[in-house]
Design brief:
The chain has 305 residues and is α/β, with parallel strands linked by helices. It has a single domain, classed as TIM Barrel (Alpha-Beta Barrel). The protein has twelve helices and ten strands. The radius of gyration is 17 Å and the shape is globular. The two termini are 17 Å apart.
Length: 305
Amino acid sequence: MSDRYNRLINALNNGEHILIDGATGTEVEKRGVPQLENAWNGGGALSHPDILREIHEDYIRAGAHIIISNTFATHRSALEDAGEAHNFEAYNRRGVELACEARERSGAEHVLVAGGLSHWTWIDNDPPIEKLKDAAREQAAIMADAGAELLMLEMMIEVGRLEAVLEAALETGLPVWPGLTCRVDPKLGVVLDAGEPLADAMAIIEQHNVDLVNIMHTEVTDINACLDALTPLWDGLVGVYAHASEYVDDGGFRWNFNDVISPQAYQGYVEQWLAKDVRLIGSCCGTGPHHIEHLANCHSYHQLS
């Protein structure tokens, strides 16, 4: 583990609060980067690297101490769906490199660069588990080689796919933080987005060496219930980066930026999560650097150096 990671995890274990970034995928869309068909907003690292690097720099200036590569949508199956599989290594390597370059250009050596991995599909074209695991193993290795010091699994919505991606990512030797996307089912309580109980996901995570679990890309109004359900299942560190807006309902995947939660309203929810001993705070789809800047100005987050 890197010195940067050790300093960060020690601060978290000592009760400090750490601020991470907000959305990158929707932010590149907001700044005019065209989408990849069937792979959402994953194309910026190759088509518009200056814009993506600038977004990372904006989050660093806003106060984020962890920035996540814009690689949520560049796993192999998504790129295959987009006809971009030949650029699999390039998208993932360059995605991490741009985050590292942003750190260097910002003179922010304390900032940790995380590689983001997912298994999400935009056309319900899930690969077989073994194929998913092989691809995640390759993706994680590329990110580690490119300079990622942490791997963050994002929108883990199915237990079997969570297990495959988690085990593949851990093979790099880097720390891995699973990010679970949850919802509240009226009959079953808190479940992963695909419908399986949160307890089943945590049973898998407990079998592995994991320092922190994130509840992410989950409605802000559901986070408190998710945290209450998580508490008896997990005694490790917890992070939250929620969202509160959706796609435009036009059959595509463009984001509705008109209904994004305000920084002030988001901060109101954050105060509730901090009171439940959440140590890591960020935000997700639709939010931007102004949300992170507002959070930084409203609470005393640990100042890493």
